[in-house]
Specification:
With 217 residues, the protein is of the alpha/beta class. Helices cover 25% and strands 22% of the residues. It has one domain (2-209): Aldolase class I (TIM Barrel, Alpha-Beta Barrel). The radius of gyration is 17 Å and the shape is globular.
Length: 217
């Protein structure tokens, strides 16, 4: 599989193992989308990073010594078979696994404790790539994340969230103001006005704290 980097830092965004927890990131190379606000464009190229076997990746994670693992990208499900084999191996080694994925693939993995699936909104440029069927089987340990850049994104997110609920999606929902662009206090005001009291505001904690996400190998 193509892996861009493996490193330990903090989980800066929502997941059911808690935001702010120390985690080892496994960043897959390659992505099938190109969102306007992407902050990991360097990992979009499928040829970036290096070729690694499942055993090599698991060994690097073992050396770093952290039980919690966050698999991200790029888009990890872009390499679906390799991803499945890796999650199976990590789970059997006793790791707690959360996965950050862009919402364009059905979430299929082994032993994943928390899926964090983006639902792309109009400002991303990838709204037309969303398929509601990818989200309908999520449960209460999982998250659907909406990145909000403006009021149109917010209104779209409310509509899509209610539809996902209606088709059986039981995930938690997080609204994340696009870093440096999206509304923050206004987003809170809108949610209160609409009585959307179960929505969680997701801020990118690592960016607010100035924590650098980097490869420490």
């Amino acid at each position: 599989m193509r892996i861009y980097e493996i490193f330990t830092s903090i989980d800066g965004e929502v997941n059911s193992f808690y935001q702010g927890r120390i985690t080892t990131f496994i960043r897959f190379s390659g992505c099938n989308l190109s969102c306007q606000y992407c902050d990991t464009k360097y990992a979009q190229d499928p040829a970036s990073g290096e070729e690694m076997s499942v055993a090599e990746v698991v060994n690097e994670v073992k050396k770093l010594g952290c039980k919690k693992v966050t698999i991200t990208g790029g888009e990890p499900l872009y390499q679906s078979q390799e991803f499945f084999e890796l999650t199976r191996s990590l789970w059997h080694k006793g790791h707690e696994i959360s996965v950050e994925t862009n919402g364009s693939f059905y979430p299929a993995g082994y032993g994943v404790g928390s899926w964090v699936m983006d639902f792309k909104l109009p400002s991303s440029g990838c709204f037309d790539k969303m398929d509601h069927n990818n989200f309908k089987d999520l449960n209460k340990a999982d998250w659907v994340k909406f990145v909000i850049s403006d009021r149109n994104d917010y209104d779209t997110a409310i509509r899509e969230m209610n539809y996902l609920r209606s088709i059986g999606c039981n995930a938690m929902f997080a609204f994340s103001p696009c870093f440096g662009v999206g509304p923050q206090k206004m987003l809170v005001d809108w949610l209160i006005e609409d009585k959307e009291f179960d929505v969680v505001i997701n801020l990118q904690l690592h960016k607010l704290m100035g924590v650098k996400l980097y490869n420490i190998q």
